[in-house]
């Protein structure tokens, strides 16, 4: 019985149960749900493959020690760099998960990781152009500035909290380290041509399989959830709840935007129409930022990586940052 209960709590079981529910309750949409999730996962596959191969290579060569060492003693600069890099990286909130997993496993400080984590889903070059076309350049530039500012805010907030030791060991499972038999050793020199040694080839294969399966199962569940949201929760209905002016509308917009799925390509045209119907620019900004940072598909994947207190902090920083960005943007415009 314990084994059965444990199996039912796995991502694979969640996927099967969700699709089974669609098959029973709405069989006409089962194929469309599966196709949507499969296409979304296929679009992310290149990021998964790159992240898995890179992490396995670092483990097999022993270079992960060098990567982790590069983050030591440079935390403030790394926070700023991570926030800026996140604002330029073309990743949505789900696609960034493989890279966050790798950074955490390699010992990157949580403050810098949080800065990248918060800023990365918000803006990228294509999104900037789409947002400018639908909402104007002031809104697009405001969102880009908000992305970097949110990363800096989250990174330095985590840095302050880490001084008390409250955020030690953020991962749910401690990262595996190399051991014996010619594998990576702490303080050792990397062996870049790892394929010349059998133990290192074994490490590479094991890391590829382990990390690949881990990321595949959680991202597959995330995209099934995303497909269900797109199918059964109309974006227009969600966004209509946040019409009106004032600071209250900005707070409501951020709260509603958190669980809503509006990707960065769909949101600008929809929000442009709602702004024309009376939605404030600040509420639109808060809605867009909160939705990008903490959509349900992204939260499902984030939950798989970190402990509950770090997950709650991520959500809290995202919500607070969205409200602050909305308020400041409302004052500016």
Model description:
- The chain is an all-alpha fold and 333 residues long.
- It has one domain (27-332).
- Helices cover 72% and strands 0% of the residues.
- The chain is built from 16 helices and no strands.
- α5 (75-88) runs parallel beside α7 (110-119) and α6 (97-105) runs antiparallel to α7 (110-119).
- 44% of the residues are buried.
- Residues 175-187 have low confidence and may be disordered.
Features:
DUF318, membrane, mainly alpha, globular, 16 helices, transmembrane helix, single chain, 333 residues
Overview in brief:
By secondary structure, this protein is mainly alpha-helical.
Q: What is the number of independent domains?
A: 1
Q: Decide which structural class fits the backbone.
A: mainly alpha
What is the overall number of helices?
Answer: 16
**Helix-strand pattern:** HHHHHHHHHHHHHHHH
- Approximate helicity band: over 70%
As a percent range, the share of strand residues is under 5%
Task: Estimate the global geometry from the Cα principal axes.
Answer: globular
Q: Span between N and C termini?
A: 60 Å
Itemize the secondary structure elements and their pairings:
Blueprint: H1 2-8, H2 11-25, H3 30-61, H4 64-70, H5 75-88, H6 97-105, H7 110-119, H8 125-135, H9 137-162, H10 198-232, H11 235-240, H12 247-257, H13 267-276, H14 281-293, H15 296-303, H16 308-332
Helix pairs in contact: 2-10, 3-10, 5-7, 5-9, 6-7, 7-9, 8-9, 8-13, 9-16, 10-15, 12-14, 12-16, 14-16
Protein name: Permease
Main location: membrane
Transmembrane segments: 12-30, 36-58, 79-108, 128-153, 208-225, 237-262, 283-305, 311-332
